[in-house]
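Margin note from the TA: students keep mixing up input and output lines. Inputs are the sequences; the output is the structure of the whole complex. Example:
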Amino acid sequence: MNTNPINRYPFIAIALVTLVSLASVDMAYGAETDDPLLTKVMIDEFENDLSSNSTTSWGAQAWLGYDLNKLWIKTEGEYSGGDVIDAQVQALYSRAIAPYWDLQMGLRRDLKPSPSRDWAVLGIQGLAPYFFEIDAALYVGKEGRTAVSLSTEYELLITQQLILTPEIEMNFYGQNDPDVGIGSGLSDFGAGLRLRYEIVREFAPYIGVNWSKKFGNTADYAREEGEEDSETQFVVGFRAWF
Amino acid sequence: MASKSVHSNIQKLVYKPQSSLSRRRFVMGAASAMMLASLPFTQSVLAASLRKGLTTLSGRMFDLSIDYQTVNFTGTDVRATVINQSIPGPLLRWKEGETVTLRVKNNLDISSSIHWHGIILPASMDGVPGISFEGIEPGDTFEYNFTLGQSGTYWYHSHSGFQEQTGMYGAIVIDPKDADPVAYDREYVVMLSDWSDEEPESIYAKLKKQSDYYNFRERTLVDLFDDISANGLVNTWNARSMWNKGRMSDRDISDVTGYTYTYLMNGNTPEKGWQGLFRKGERVRLRFINSAAMTIFDVRIPGLKMTVVASDGQNVQPVSVDEFRIGVAETYDVIVEPEVDNAYCIFAQSIDRTGFTYGSLTSDQALKPLIPPMDPVAVLAHRDMGMNMEGMDHGSMDIAGNGDKTMNMNDMDHSAMQMDMAGNGDKTMDMKGMDHSAMQMDMNKVSSTGLGLAGYGSNNEIKHISSEFGPQVDMRAASPRSGLTDPGIGLRDHQSLYQRKVLTYADIKGLTPTLDKRQPSREIQLHLTGNMSRYMWSVNGIKFADAAPLELEFGERVRITLVNDTMMTHPMHLHGMWSELETGDPDFIPRKHTVIVQPGSSISYLVTADALGGWAYHCHLLFHMPGMFRKVQVKNA
């Protein structure tokens, strides 16, 4: 599965093409339906690291579907020095199971770093009490690989258009996978703080700071490669949806 | 000077999300200027030449056409759908007892329709595609033909898709066959509506993608600091905690706001301002019609008392008020008697105070009225969720959709509880001094007695059936209040704050005795439900597409009790038959076609199923309508 010819061309392009093609599905809106087929594409984060200004990262989601049943595409990754370093895509069927919660299941493919890894996904996404946005998923891969990811985000309105978003993300893996630099246990933890200004609802530039740290064997692998095990980035980017 | 102040007011009051703070300051500052223009004037020309008025068509035979037309309300050219080339369409003037014929030609490239709102007619003439007829196909002409058995103020609109919100509506006035019990010297139709340059399909899609898209009044950090400094940290936390736990916003008043809407009076923007003339001493009848898509208006005329003489076209015992709320599709006729020459402002502010429209009732065309500031925006209270919050155990509240059907009664402060034990005419009962240990038993007894007497509303217990549980419903009112005496959110304190008497449904009594004095033979309890964050609307948790028709037996007298399990105010419209509102006087039950159901409240009305066939029954907020809709089938036994 490591034969994907992903070389220099940014993954961003592939991800965006997928998302845009989803959005181009016409809104099949019949006069009498309460539940039209709709799409939403959300570029939650598209940002540049100011300190090393060659790193661009993205996090985006898109859905196609109805009130209670949707097809979701999620992607995140990092592009640096002319290459995609990190890229992940998920395709999920999402079904509402409670007023604020969706159960999501499907496939995830880690395209980068090579070799690529495939996973089956079972996740939950929604809004917890006190308005915490939660995205949690369990992944099962080949050769007994397992993983869990957790992320939460909160939107703090300073004014109606100036919004501060703290965010926490962490990943756990069931076993070591030295080929892709992943160790078992808590592998990485990230905390971000972004301040955006919604010029319109659909478009908001932001500035932010990201702190991330690798743990355990993951940190060891990184150090072996000559990388730091923790990193602080100052970022500038935008959030958009349509 | 007056004219200058009109324009500066408009500029500042037109809703801009980013200027909410300065707007609020302005409102407060302008309060002192809230007085009427009293400028000298010359005797005006009281010709019938009314600026920007409605075109009137009268007679028995009418030709109407439905066309696309480019309009410009905001500075941008936009395509509208219009009836007889105008927004609103022509005012149709009919006479009770006559038979009217309306030939409606559809020049659109999609199917269309016209529904005669509030008119009692055969089902085949009601104009609801898919229920009463096929719709009018492109290029076709449909001939409506019916005999008028009523008089009063009504209106008409498209019932196809979202056409109404792009301009398809007009007023109807039916003159009575006999002498009008309401004496007046002059009359005007005052048609209120909302206009957006956005296509309604696009508004709907945005709401599905982000349900608070149009709400720029959410709680902010600035509010939080204000609240903490005013009330302390603990009180602020407690007040916010329930909303935050429930993932709901107490600032959620309207789905679609002045951010996109321009509010119109007789087709005029606030910048233009509609004008009606009077001579001092005249009795002027104003026929208010709310033909908006999504906007509930609060109406007042500073300096003039309004005597409400009709509701939804039907004469009522006159009630003098300073202000009234008019739900989408409702109509109210009021009489005003200006005793001095002046320019009075007919002021209609949206329920969420994100905008207003106005017109002037003036003795001189050159006079401009002073426009009052909008009232402060309402914040939803715990009672709007159908909870009595006194000393209640918040942890047991079912707003999270966790399937918890029962409320924890143990922690409630019974002495503070106001229970509606209808049937005795007393709307509320003080529970103080009751034997609380016996209460559970008493409540069971009350609920098992079944139907209350006609005119007094329901005695039945509120039951949330299984279809109300699931991802499609985010809230259920555990103990809804009576919606009868409630003027509504944002109006409740107007008597104490401004000495303004606000109309409530409890004030409305029919002018003539109740025709059908039978007791209801059964009661249908319907719950208005939704999931605000997913922007889904339904009845009993079931959307129209999945719902079986509601069946009524021809001739039966039935009570419908509506329970609002949402935090929005829903104007519910039953086609074809009257909704006889149970306001506590069985002898003079008022007849309405559209009934506001307040958030977290319940309200009952009686229906005589005297019209065979299929009828529509729905929320008249047009973006709620696709889901919050039932077909009513009246069948022979």
